[in-house]
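Suppose you are handed only these lines of text.
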Amino acid sequence: MAWRRGLGHAGAAGAVRMIPLGDAQALVREACTRLDQRVVAVGDSLGCVLAAPALAAVDVPPFANSAMDGYAVRAEDVAVTPVQLRVTGRVLAGSMSAGALGPREAIRIMTGAPMPPGADAVVMVERTRQDEDAGEDTVVIEDPVRTGENVRGAGGDVHAGSEVLAAGAVVGPTQLAALVSAGVAEVTVVPRPRVGVISTGDELVDLGQPLGPAQIYDSNRPMLLALVGEAGCAALDLGRSADDEDALEARIARALPHVDALVLSGGVSVGDVDVVRMVLERIGKGRARWMQIAIRPAKPFSFTPLAGPGRTVPAFGLPGNPVSSAVGFELLVRPALRAMAGHRVTERPRLIARAREDLRRRPDGKTHFMRVVLEPVSTPRGTVDATDEAGAEPVAWTAAPCPGQGSHQIRSMGLADGLAVLPDGDGVAAGSPVEVIITNRAFSEALPAVR
Ligand code: AMP
Ligand code: MG
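From them, the structure of the protein bound to adenosine monophosphate can be written out as follows.
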C-alpha cells in the first residue's frame, strides 16, 4: 500500500507513535494563516474582523443638537430663575429652525433637532411651565442651565477622520451601528473563511429519509456545518460521499476553487474503507499528515494543506464517531479557522470547576476530554461565591459527568456544557479542581460571569 510509506508506519497502525495535542495543534496552526484582507461594504462586514482601523467619514453627531425635548435658550438669559421668555418658534428632529434666537427668547426644540443659531443650551421641558395669563407664546424657565447643557456637540461621539473601531475589532450589531453612524461605507476586513463540509460513509442517510438496514443518519454533517458557522465562518454544505476514493476525490476537486478550508468527517482510522485518509494522501502531494493524537476521544486525525487555486486550502479529516468529530473540531479545527478569520480569541472560554463526584479514567498516555454539566456552587445565602481550599482560584461551579461517555454517544455531548480536561492518570477526585472547556455556547450566553 503506497500510502502507508513515508508516514513512519511500523506496519500495524497501532504501532504509530501518538503525538501530544499541542504538537498537532501547532502543526495545524502553522498551515492555517490569516486570510488576505479585502475591502467590503459595511453591510457585508458582519462577523468579520477589521484588518485596518475604520475612520469616521463624518462627525457624529454631524451637527450640534438637543439632547432633550424642551426649549433652546441662551444660558445667560436664564441665569436668574424663574424667568419668562418669549417663544419664537419650534424646531423638530430633521428640520432647521426658521430663525435665530434673540435675547430673552426661547425656541421649542425636540430631541435630535439642530440647535438654532444663537442658542447655547436647552432647558428640559420638565423644568419649565406655561403661565396661563401670559399667553401661549411664552414659557417660564424654572431653573438655570449652564452653557452647553443638554446640547450634543458636533463630533461629540467621534470626529470625522478619527478612529471609530480599531484593527482587530469584530463587527457585531453595535459595531455596525457605530460604523454606519459615522458614514463609513466600506471597511477593510479579514473575510470570513468559506469552509466546506463533506461527510463520508456508505451507511449514512440524510434526515427525512427512512433508515434502511445497517443505515444511520448523517448527524456529523449538520453538526460540523453548524460548528463552522458558530466559529464565525461561512459554512458550505458539500454533501456526503460514498466510501469510494474516486468519488471523494472528485468531490474535493470540485470544491477546492470555492473554499478556504475543508472539513471531512469519517474515514480517517485504520478500517478497510478509510477513504478520507487515503484520498488526502493521494492528492496531498506529500504534505498529507495522518496522526494519532494522545487524546480521547478523537485520536486519529488527518491534516493536509491542499494546493488550491493560488493558495493553500487546509483539509481537516475528523473521525466519524460523532463525539470524536465534535471534539476533534473543538481542539484542532476551530482554533485554526478562527486564526484564518483573524480573530484574536481563537479558543473557547475555560473555567476551573470543582469535581462534583470522582471523574474517573485509566492511565493510557492520553488526555481525556469528558463531557460534563456545570452547576453553580450555592452558598448558604444562595449566591455563587465559593473559594477553593487554596483560597486562590474562586470556584463557582461544579462539574459532573454526563451519562454515556462513549465516542458514539452524541446525545451526552448535547447535554454537556463543556469538556473537562483530564490529564493522563486516574482522573480527578471529587472536590478537586478541574479545567473545563465551555463548548456549549448556550451556557456562556445564559450566564453573566462565567470566568
Ligand atoms: P469512521 O470514522 O468512518 O470509521 O466512522 C466511525 C463511526 O462513526 C462509525 O460507527 C460510523 O458509522 C460513524 N459515523 C461516521 N460518519 C458519521 C456521520 N456523518 N454521522 C454519524 N455517524 C457517523
Ligand atoms: Mg466510515
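What can we learn from it? The chain has four domains: 18-35+191-340, 39-55+167-190, 65-152, 350-450. Residues 1-14, 380-388 have pLDDT under 50 and may be disordered.
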